[in-house]
Specification:
- By secondary structure, this protein is α+β, with helices and mostly antiparallel strands.
- It has two domains: 3-28 and 271-384 and 459-577, Glutamine Phosphoribosylpyrophosphate, subunit 1, domain 1, CATH 3.60.20.40; 39-270 and 388-424, no CATH class.
- Helix content is 36%, strand content 16%.
- The chain has 20 helices and 20 strands.
- It has helices at residues 3-22, 49-60, 65-79, 145-156, 163-176, 182-190, 192-195, 199-205, 221-233, 236-239, 242-253, 260-265, 292-303, 308-311, 316-336, 347-350, 353-360, 483-496, 502-507, 529-538, and strands at residues 37-39, 43-46, 89-95, 101-106, 178-179, 217-218, 269-271, 274-278, 281-285, 386-393, 399-407, 415-416, 421-422, 463-466, 472-479, 511-512, 521-522, 551-557, 563-567, 574-577.
- It has a seven-stranded antiparallel β-sheet with strand order 1-19-18-15-14-9-8.
- The N and C termini lie far apart (52 Å).
- Residues 1-29 have low confidence and may be disordered.
- Bound molecules: 6-diazenyl-5-OXO-L-norleucine.
């Protein structure tokens, strides 16, 4: 071999070995996941194509990601009534093109009449059915969605579009109707038990027993009229205007808790986002009253001490440390978290790397802990089912990641008379009896007990991850109660440790553990029997009914600046870009 040939051969070999050693461990090119949707300029990923299109149109007209997110949120209140809402609340995390992050808390607030034992009967038992925290007129917290959207519009909107321009697409969808998917028609029908109990919901969603079918036009004239008034008068229409009066009157007529005064007193709040790093990548998320950001960062900090990439994506070793980390972080959730305006949440300690090390030191690599033996961590005193997520990225580098909810599917099942507005059952996110499980089986503590004016602790986890140079990499969030946190954590790990793209990361099977019940929730076909046997050998228990661990949506920007939109294959929805 001549010298020049040898040099060429050596160079070729070096390049080849570089390519192979730098390939991400999960080799995502080989996985059979759909490709994300591509958009050279902007992207909306939401759970309804019509809503995603609304967002794209807003950006094409000159609106930014915040304007688009508001319009998408309002459109989802019409085309995705199981979760999209103006009668619920949520969290919007924004990263503006100047690199600053902003968190808007528009979580529902307990009405003044909601005291500690409002959902407990005289024998000390939880009230079930009407009067409970899960269904009917007493289950709703004061909605925050419109207050939150208006705050976002005023503070971070482009100012190139008017408020009415953001509301109008939703109003038109409500007025003219849209075609129901098979899933939506079936869902109305399957919720007929709850929806038929309330006259307006029965009329609107069940057509008084003449049930909707796939492809039928679904029009909501009352909601269109409400949106028309919101378009003209702004959010105050909902809090002090005729809509407020309609809601308060209906509440009064049915023994509900929300009064005109409660609506008038509602305020969206801007909070300081929380952030940490995972293997050098900055992770930004929602602070309390969501537990999502803290639990996620605590788990990521614990996992950072293990070589997750080498353990392998679907290995027993990884599932074991992940479960142990989640068990500990959810125990902390129960003890330390609640509305920060009512009690101190030790955020800094909980998301500190040294605290995670201490937590990790209690993990045995071949033995499962028992949740009965794992309490909350040691924090020095005195330190200072139904939801939907959408993500929007515009052409100028603004990103919005927003999760909002009615809690259960169709919330409390009550549609306030004359408004077309479905109301939430978010009061169930409080610990109605501290120490006893809520509808998600979550055990929660005193810090999350019911109090007038308080916001219930949430698991919603809108999250943004930056590249090491500080530029935006990806944003995501999920629906699914406490499983949201597990879905977001594992999607982040899938990107960072396993090298998956956003679609693969969101689609990949995952697990959930929330301290109690002390069992691993796994997905159908999500874990092989031999992996499960290894974990059982360590002492882990598994649920007897496997099911999905939340559904996520997200957007990633690739190194050429292309926006990649992803909707979880577990759910409906569509990412639309341009
Ligand atoms: O805020 C929370 O954590 C819950 N209200 C979220 C509920 C939820 O995600 C139900 N979705 N499927």
């Amino acid at each position: 071999m001549r010298k020049s040939q040898l040099r060429l051969f050596t160079a070729f070999f070096v390049v080849l070995s570089f390519i192979f050693t730098s390939l991400p461990s999960a080799a995502p090119v080989l996985a059979a996941w759909p490709e994300p949707v591509r958009g050279k300029h902007a992207m909306v990923a939401s759970q309804h194509e019509l809503a995603s299109k609304v967002g794209v149109e807003i950006m094409k007209k000159g609106g930014n990601a915040v304007d688009a997110a508001i319009a998408v949120g309002l459109a989802l209140a019409v085309v995705y009534p199981e979760a999209g809402n103006i009668g619920g609340g949520g969290f919007m995390l924004i990263r503006t093109s100047d690199g600053k992050a902003h968190a808007i808390d528009y979580r529902e607030m307990a009405p003044a009449a909601a005291t500690r034992d409002v959902y407990v009967d005289s024998a000390g038992n939880l009230i079930r059915g009407e009067g409970s925290s899960t269904i009917g007129y007493r289950a709703s917290g004061v909605p925050g969605t419109l207050a939150g959207f208006e705050m976002a519009y005023k503070k971070y909107g482009s100012k190139k579009l008017t408020w009415s321009q953001l509301v109008e697409p939703a109003r038109l969808l409500a007025l003219n109707g849209f075609s129901l998917s098979e899933r939506q028609a079936v869902l109305f029908y399957s919720y007929r038990g709850n929806l038929s109990k309330y006259a307006e919901s029965n009329r609107i969603f069940l057509r008084s027993g003449k049930y909707y079918e796939e492809d039928e036009l679904f029009r909501q004239p009352d909601l269109a009229a409400t949106l028309g008034r919101v378009e003209r008068n702004g959010a105050k229409e909902f809090y002090t205007g005729s809509t407020a009066r309609l809601i308060a009157d209906d509440m009064k007529a049915h023994g509900g808790l929300i009064t005109l005064n409660d609506l008038k007193n509602y305020k969206a709040k801007e909070r300081e986002p929380i952030s940490g790093t995972y293997r050098g990548y900055k992770v930004i998320s929602m602070p309390p009253p969501s537990s999502g950001g803290i639990v996620m960062l605590e788990v990521l900090n614990i996992l950072e001490g293990y070589d997750i990439a080498s353990m392998g994506y679907n290995s027993a070793a990884k599932f074991h440390v992940l479960t142990e980390a989640m068990r500990r972080a959810f125990a902390d959730r129960a003890e330390f978290m609640g509305d920060p305006d009512f009690s101190t949440v030790p955020v800094d300690t909980l998301i500190d790397k040294a605290y995670a090390k201490k937590q990790a030191s209690t993990i045995d690599l071949v033995r499962a802990s028992k949740s009965t033996e794992i309490g909350h961590g040691d924090i020095p005193g005195g330190e200072s089912m139904d939801t939907t997520h959408f993500t929007v990225a515009d052409a100028s580098g603004n990103v919005v990641t927003n999760t909002y909810t009615l809690n259960d599917l169709y919330g409390s099942a009550v549609t306030a008379k004359g408004t077309g507005v479905l109301l939430n059952d978010e009061m169930d996110d409080f610990a109605a009896r501290p120490g006893k499980a809520n509808m998600f089986g979550l055990i929660q503590g005193e810090k999350n007990s019911v109090q007038p004016g308080k916001r219930p602790l949430s698991s919603m986890t809108p999250t943004i991850v930056l590249r090491k140079d500080g530029s935006f990499w990806f944003a995501l969030g999920a629906r699914g109660g406490p499983r949201i946190i597990s879905a977001v954590i594992q999607s982040v790990i899938n990107v960072i440790d396993h090298g998956m793209n956003i679609q693969a990361a969101i689609d990949a099977p995952r697990i959930h553990h929330q301290w109690f019940p002390d069992e691993i929730l796994y997905e159908p076909y999500g874990m092989s029997p031999d992996t499960m046997n290894i974990l059982k050998g360590y002492g882990h228990k598994f649920t007897s009914s496997p099911g999905y661990v939340a559904t996520a949506t997200g957007i990633m920007v690739d190194d050429k600046g292309v926006r990649l939109g992803a909707i979880d294959s577990r759910s409906d929805g569509k990412a639309v870009g341009y």
